[in-house]
Design brief:
This protein is an alpha+beta fold. It has a single domain, classed as Sandwich (Jelly Rolls). The protein has 6 helices and 14 strands. The N and C termini lie far apart (about 35 Å). About 40% of the residues are buried.
């Protein structure tokens, strides 16, 4: 496997494809094959999620797997560009959950997935046929035979420093994900519950139960989201979701892309992401680190 060469620059400064991994459509006709159906969009709004959307082919998966294998090595070139980097998000060494933010700044493949036409078209439709801006990415990796979990949570509970709530999350697997190796679970309809308190992300799996009403506890009926590698699940920012241990002999590698509708504002004078200059409260979220992906 080729080693990862030191980046000549922060790829966050480049707001277009830098490799041949994808081809960005140039005409309405070229965009049409990527469009979700009306039934898919309606399902998302009714249930708070949409799963099984194909985003990557086998070649693209292998490129991203190769990049990921190098990114999880300590002190790799470009490590100064991470927003966050946790070789184990869990405090338990036997419950490994690799979690990192900022891969798009470091390697060509994880940079270019932001401009994957299948992703940006779906994101625009699910956000109301709106222009889409990038928020941040995440890598989530569960090694084989490890009991690391992602606790039940709502994404927006970590993002209240922006407004209005016009976000969208896309989870894409680089391995087949099922109930044996720690696939994603959703609680359908929970996007209507309002904003809940946030638990520790890799802590007690059921910590969120302390924040639910009795009615919400009755409605708490999670379903597994089993996906073939290269397929994605989109979900609403208030969707309650999480994932259990990987008790299989297979890894469960995935990346997440978080976006928001263009026009979203900063709701804080503080730093929004480590190393990123603050955006004044009330100002539009834009600039090098929050590029426009689809207009």
């Amino acid at each position: 496997m080729a080693t990862l060469s030191a980046p000549t620059q922060d790829l966050a400064r480049i707001h277009e494809l830098v490799s041949d991994l994808f081809r960005y459509p140039q005409t309405p006709e070229e965009w049409e094959p990527y469009r979700l159906s009306e039934a898919q969009v309606a399902f998302y709004h009714e249930n708070g999620y949409l799963a099984g959307v194909p985003l990557l082919d086998e070649r693209q998966i292998e490129v991203l797997r190769s990049e990921l294998a190098q990114l999880i090595q300590p002190n790799h070139p470009g490590s100064e560009y991470w927003y966050e980097y946790h070789s184990n998000e869990s405090s338990n060494p036997d419950s490994v959950l690799f979690h990192a933010l900022g891969a798009w700044r470091i390697t060509p493949g994880f940079h270019d997935v932001l401009w994957n036409p299948a992703f940006v078209m779906a994101a625009s439709q699910l956000l109301g046929n709106a222009p889409v801006r990038f928020w941040h990415d995440q890598l989530f990796c569960k090694p084989a035979k490890h009991v690391g979990v992602v606790s039940w949570h709502q994404d927006y509970s970590y993002w209240t420093r922006t407004r209005p709530m016009a976000h969208l999350t896309c989870w894409t697997g680089l391995d087949d994900a099922d109930t044996h190796n720690g696939c994603l679970y959703y609680v359908p309809g929970s996007h209507r519950w309002g904003l809940l308190n946030k638990p520790e992300l890799a802590g007690d799996m059921n910590g969120i139960m302390n924040f639910l009403s009795e009615e919400q506890k009755r409605q708490f009926q999670p379903i597994p989201i089993e996906l073939k590698r290269g397929h994605a699940a989109f979900h609403h920012p208030l969707m309650v979701h999480g994932s259990y241990e990987n008790r299989s002999d297979r890894p469960r590698r995935a990346f997440v892309l978080n976006v928001f509708r263009d026009g979203t504002l900063s709701d804080s004078h503080d730093v929004l992401l480590t190393g990123v200059p603050p955006i004044p409260k009330g100002a539009s979220m834009q600039g090098d680190f929050f590029p426009l992906l689809f207009a």
